[in-house]
From TrEMBL:
Alphabetically ordered keywords of this record: Kinase, Signal, Transferase
Top-level lineage group: Eukaryota
One MF term in the entry's GO annotations: kinase activity
UniProt name for this protein: Protein kinase-like domain-containing protein
Subcellular location: Membrane
Cellular component terms per the entry's GO annotation: membrane
Domain Wall-associated receptor kinase galacturonan-binding: 23-80
Primary location group: membrane
InterPro entries: WAK_GUB (IPR025287)
Membrane topology, as annotated: Single-pass membrane protein
Entries under Pfam families matching the protein: GUB_WAK_bind
Organism expressing this protein natively: Artemisia annua (Sweet wormwood)
Length: 236
């Protein structure tokens, strides 16, 4: 990965542009730098095309996921993903043939539930990762954290592997007679910085996707000197 000072300082009052010439570089409060672009002619290819609807950006080719931010230094785009909270096997968004993967470095897998567990599986149903919460006598209903990390009581967390493109989740809650409450809880893949700062709520969770560029689009990046990495990177 070629290092680039993507957020270089400037002495002038003018805000630097990060989009292709003639293209907007913001949608609402979100900056959209190249290789992403608002409109087909402003992005490096269809996967980086951003729709800006009512000041909210979406990746049009990727299930119309809402974009929360693009980090050129980390080569990640943060999007809103749904929280899983049912007992049946649930599939994630499939990144498939896209240039995106779930970032191992910037995400953590979290399960919130009393006396239960969450298992992440690949497309063949093989175990990928997972964690479980303890059955304590604490009846306050409060999910316990220590130093922004799950304590294992009503909340647990773990890492994910490299090169993850899709996954399935299976949530299990212990029955009341076994010490649980029968509920399956909820699980999600969440951007670590957002999780540490508690910047999310509800059923949509900020998740970081690592984006990559192949040789075909290498030279096209020269359009925007401040637009970040110019080559493929090893997944992080």
């Amino acid at each position: 990965m070629h290092g680039v000072d993507s957020w270089s300082t400037a002495t002038s009052v003018a805000v630097p542009k990060y989009a292709k010439p003639g293209c907007n570089d913001t949608c609402g409060k979100v900056r959209i730098p190249y290789p992403f672009g608002i409109g087909a002619k402003c992005s490096v290819n269809k996967w980086y095309n951003i729709d800006c609807n009512s000041s909210t950006p979406y990746i049009s080719a990727l299930n119309h996921l809402e974009v929360l931010g693009v980090d050129l230094g980390n080569q990640t785009v943060t999007v809103n993903m749904p929280k899983v909270s049912n007992c049946s096997l649930t599939k994630s968004v499939d990144l498939g043939s896209s240039p995106f993967i779930f970032s191992k470095t910037h995400n953590r897998f979290v399960y919130e539930g009393y006396c239960g567990n969450a298992v992440m599986m690949d497309d063949e149903g093989s175990f990928v990762t997972g964690c479980s919460t303890t059955c304590s006598n604490d009846s306050t209903g409060v999910t316990l954290y220590r130093n922004n990390k799950c304590s294992g009581i009503k909340c647990c967390e773990t890492t994910i592997p490299h090169y993850l493109k899709s996954y399935g989740l299976n949530l299990t809650g212990l029955e009341r007679q076994l010490g649980g409450d029968g509920a399956c809880g909820s699980a999600f893949l969440v951007d670590q910085s957002a999780y540490d700062e508690g910047r999310f709520s509800g059923n949509s969770i900020p998740t970081s996707l690592l984006w990559t560029l192949g040789d075909l689009h290498y030279d096209q990046i020269s359009c925007c000197n401040q637009a970040g990495p110019k080559a493929r990177s090893r997944p992080r």
